[in-house]
Amino acid sequence: MHPVRKRRLTIVIFLLAGLGIAVGLTVYAFRQNINLFYDPTAIAAGEAPHDIVIRAGGMVEDNSVEREPNSLKVRFKVTDFKSTVLMEYDGILPDLFAEGQGVVATGRLRDDGVFVADEVLAKHDENYMPPEVAKSLKKKTGDDAAADAVKTVVTE
Amino acid sequence: MWQFFHKLGSPKWFYGIAGRLMPWFLVPGLLLLLTGIVWGLAFAPPDYLQGNSYRIIYIHVPTAFLAQACYVMMAAAGLVTLVWRLKLADVFVKAVAPVGAVVTFLALFTGSVWGKPTWGTWWIWDARLTSMLILLFLYFGVIALGNAIADEKSAARAVAVLVLVGVVNIPIIKYSVEWWNTLHQPATLKLTEKPSMPPEMWVPLVLSIVGLYLLFGWLACLRMQTEILHRERRARWVRELVE
Description:
Low-confidence stretches of chain B: none
Structural class of chain A: alpha+beta
Distance between the termini of chain B: 35 Å
Shape of chain B: globular
Strand content of chain A: 25-35%
Oligomer: heterodimer
Helix content of chain A: 25-40%
Helix content of chain B: over 70%
Distance between the termini of chain A: 72 Å
Number of domains of chain B: 2
């Protein structure tokens, strides 16, 4: 390679490496702010501030959704399989909201540890499958009857 | 090898090659894209959770892939501009930047349309969506900078530097869903693992991705030809071509 081109190439590579390190460090320093939500473990560890609007997210725990009759009020537990947070919400839930599915809620953490949500968004995962496959998968795990019963209660 | 590389430096030579390549991009590209999209939208099975609304994946994922791939190709061309001063590399960047901007916009738009019925919101400032929006602005910046500088050579170098600086955003887009908590789900199609969907869902998806890439190749050739004609308008071979 021509020495001039070699020199230019070295300069460009060094510039890119330096830039990459700078951006990497910046992004690493901001990781707490870039995270969209606190997970239940972070909340349990006291990392999430109280009485400030924050987001919290995780999986809706199985058999934890309780609806208040004659109102839209709903209480459910959100888990990351290490810790859980109890959430309260008064409003219309997204269609994909279900037990065993992910949610991201905006709201405030009360001093008693209950998260009062103003908005609940559904977070779905990267797995897609036809309904029949999902059904037979559920049958294999054996708890389909219970899960289905809860689902109909929830959708009613 | 090096001879080929130096031939690439000749706009006239590339003009001819591009013309011969174009049908090979256009016909298979159209066929694959049409097959993939029709198969995906009409015949692939619905999703157990999202029903039919997941079908927008057959447009969203190809455009999002191409949006990033196009930028990586532009960055490679930017490197060639800076190190080897090949005119054709700058022609490529100038020709495909608007195409990249359009597919990035389409990816953001289809994602937004998909987000409303599934997540419950049109937009959220999570890492994936925000870094993708930055990519759109990078494309705008490349287009604007290229047009703002009158001198062709300095414009080429300035654009190359901007394109190379912006390339750090690409790994951020790719790994945003793994490094941070986001509302956007992780990738379904991965190079190293089996896709997390059955073949009757991912085959049409892969077809439309490959189809869109081929169509991009066709459009890149076409736009590069136009740009070459414009830049070489005073050359004898262009005059002969036009007459």
